[in-house]
Specification:
The complex is a heterodimer of chains A (114) and B (112). Chain A has no helices and eleven strands. Chain A has strands spanning 4-7, 10-13, 19-25, 31-38, 42-51, 54-57, 64-66, 76-78, 87-94, 104-105, 109-113. Chain B is built from no helices and twelve strands. In chain B, strand 7 and strand 8 form a beta hairpin. The chains are: A mainly beta (114), B mainly beta (112).
């Protein structure tokens, strides 16, 4: 009963380094998304995908890339990390539809950029 | 654009007190409304939802009613427990289901 799995749970980077946050779901959900959570700002949508081969930008996409080659996986790439990207990142998925479904969240990935 | 505004925290209550966390929204069309809960060190999980006006969502003693006339979805619980200590997020999703919007979260601490 895995649900949404994120790796790694913790990561420390130096400014300018690159890395990929992995997200996988085993519920055959079409919709997958990445959020960042910052104190006092709640959750902000970075990128989302409504199916394999389809991605779109959310509220705060700058500095992040995504791709969706399979239904199961939705990695988030930071090409050149900046201290402003220090945050907790959540991947979430749901079935597409009229928006009545619930989002299923991973446990989060805490990223620190020095 | 679509958005959610919820009551600022933190909120501290004694056990068995009544809880209200206010949430109002701005949206075109007919969104679905949600309350999510986040326990320390965990991801968010759905607490309750309502998909149309006048619907009441309920779970674990929590309730919220979708009020279109006041564009509100306030969370209530009659008697809180220490185990309810968490951060609560109000959220909406658009008609297409492609965008979810979250409030800033309200931290609740219940003391024995």
């Amino acid at each position: 009963n895995a649900g949404v799995t994120q790796t790694p749970k913790f990561q420390v980077l130096k400014t300018g380094q690159s890395m990929t946050l992995q997200c996988a779901q085993d519920m055959n959900h079409e919709y997958m998304s990445w959020y960042r959570q910052d104190p006092g700002m709640g959750l902000r949508l970075i990128h989302y995908s409504v199916g394999a081969g389809i991605t779109d930008q959310g509220e705060v996409p700058n500095g992040y890339n995504v791709s969706r080659s399979t239904t199961e996986d939705f990695p988030l790439r930071l090409l050149s990390a900046a201290p402003s990207q220090t945050s907790v990142y959540f991947c979430a998925s749901t079935r597409t539809g009229r928006g009545t479904g619930e989002l299923f969240f991973g446990e989060g990935s805490r990223l620190t950029v020095l | 654009g679509d958005s959610v505004t919820q009551m600022e925290g933190p909120v501290t209550l004694s056990e068995e007190a009544f809880l209200t966390i206010n949430c109002t929204y701005t949206a075109t069309g007919y969104p679905s409304l949600f309350w999510y809960v986040q326990y320390p060190g965990e991801g968010l999980q759905l607490l309750l939802k309502a998909t149309k006006a006048d619907d009441k969502g309920s779970n674990k003693g929590f309730e919220a009613t979708y009020r279109k006339e006041t564009t509100s979805f306030h969370l209530e619980k009659g008697s809180v427990q220490v185990s309810d200590s968490a951060v609560y997020f109000c959220a909406l999703s658009t008609n297409t289901g492609n965008q979810f919007y979250f409030g800033t979260g309200t931290s609740l601490t219940v003391i024995p």
